[in-house]
Amino acid sequence: MRQLGVSGAWVDEPKVCTDSRGSFHEWFRGADFAAATGRGLGLAQANCSVSARGTLRGIHFADLPPSQAKYVKCVRGAVLDVVVDIRVGSPTFGQWEGVRLDDEEHAALFVSEGLGHAFMALTDDATVVYLCSAGYAPAREHGINPLDPELGITWPAGLEPLLSDKDRAAPTLREAADSGLLPAYEECERFLRGLRTPAGR
After folding, report:
1. Catalytic residue set
2. Residue 142's CATH number
3. DSSP symbols for 86-154
4. Along the chain (201 residues), what's the average pLDDT of each consecutive run of 10 residues?
5. Nearest 10 degrees: CA dihedral of 25, 81, 118, 30?
6. 22 is a domain residue
7. Distance CA 201, CA 196 (A)
8. N or C: where does the chain have the smaller number of CB atoms within 10 Å of the terminal CB?
């Protein structure tokens, strides 16, 4: 796994074995994940979304604790998957990084608790699956407008973004920060340190 520029985010680029029958790859290995991130990934929920080309989902995040870490993979088609540092006080606050996830290279993206996550479908029927560390809880779920000009995410040219009403009405990053909606970097770091502590200590 390769750590991205936004701390708390990694991309897994597996070896894909192909032959005349098709292909095979391991898209999650607990031991490799723990070695790279210094923690385990408890599975509380698994999600699957299917999106039309141009669909833009996010930027989503959840209150900490427990927030919601996500291990994300595109199993059909392609998406531009984006992680955003929304942690107030972080050295990379407001920065983002995009990774193409598709059904050819089979990369997966891990997004730690406290980070924002979004993606845009680059193909029709883009199918994304997520392994989640915590279940969906509507009262804890929040969003930031993915078209916030100050955040300046470079979404693919030539695609008209298709957003839900909720995502379109979401606040900008600055508005979310001013309202106290965003997690604090130090709080996130304390929470993640707790995940790395052996049980019983």
Report:
1. 60, 130
2. 2.60.120.10
3. --BT-TTTT-EEEEEEETTT--EEEE-TT-EEEEEESSTTEEEEEEESS---GGGEEE--TT-TTT---
4. 96 96 94 94 96 98 96 98 98 98 97 98 98 95 97 96 97 98 97 74 41
5. 30
6. no
7. 11
8. C
